[in-house]
Amino acid sequence: DPIFQVERVGKSYKNAKVSEKVLHDVTFGVERGEIVAILGPSGCGKSTLLNLLGGFERPDEGTVLFEGKPVDGPSRNCVMIFQQYGLLPWRTVRKNVEIGLERTGLTAGERRRRAEEYIERVGLSDRIDHFPHQLSGGMQQRVALARALAVRPKVLLMDEPFGALDTFNRYALQNELLRLQESEKQTVVLVTHDIDEAVFLADRILVMVSGPGRIRREIRIPDYKP
Ligand code: ADP
Ligand code: ADP
Fold this sequence. Notes:
InterPro entries: AAA+_ATPase, ABC_transporter-like_ATP-bd, ABC_transporter-like_CS, ABC_transporter_ATP-bind, P-loop_NTPase. By secondary structure, the protein is α/β, with parallel strands linked by helices. Helices cover 31% and strands 29% of the residues. The protein has helices at 46-54, 93-99, 108-121, 137-150, 167-184, 195-201; strands at 4-15, 18-30, 35-39, 61-66, 69-70, 78-81, 155-159, 187-192, 204-209, 214-220.
């Protein structure tokens, strides 16, 4: 059974007293271990859809089910990585990752080891005591990835995660995501307007159009992954 089931979802925002319908009749599922890309032009409601999955917004119509239950707020099961890395500038890499593990029931020692484990996985052990401003953009994005993964979420939600990176870093992190899918069966839903990225990463692409935002078609990518 799907990990997410989105059923006939509609969503409007009130701007200057005018209600704008941002999503209309959106229906799809996400299977466990799948990478799903939401592709579409700017403003078509991709981020809104991701926010509904993450529990940061609620639908006006329809339902969003996570493991069969309505999503009723943010949870550690689904961790969101934002466009801006969202690192705390006055905290070290280590601290930035540990902070994500507060209130998980882990002891201080466990949090420390968990943070070290994931910082190593993204290849930043030698930078563990650096502050974000001492790192390149690619490195900061890797810290954000480590912080999200350290929580061991069932689903990773990513909003244009690699948009700000140069080609080399983008390829490195995209490959890391594929390795993660392979080794951990990590479920990922990512938003992008980059068709190449969607085709490279996703098992399935939901192509959205605007006015109001809706899914125009679903494309299953043939399995060519090595
Ligand atoms: P995308 O991610 O595809 O660029 P968004 O989901 O960010 O699209 O935005 C879709 C539409 O909803 C846009 O017209 C945007 O202005 C509007 N919108 C998004 N978030 C809000 C909000 N919090 N309040 C009001 N309008 C919003
Ligand atoms: P990457 O390709 O890893 O994103 P860059 O090409 O941006 O890195 O930078 C090359 C190297 O310069 C990096 O590996 C990093 O060690 C160092 N570096 C980049 N930006 C900074 C910075 N703001 N402060 C200190 N060192 C930096």
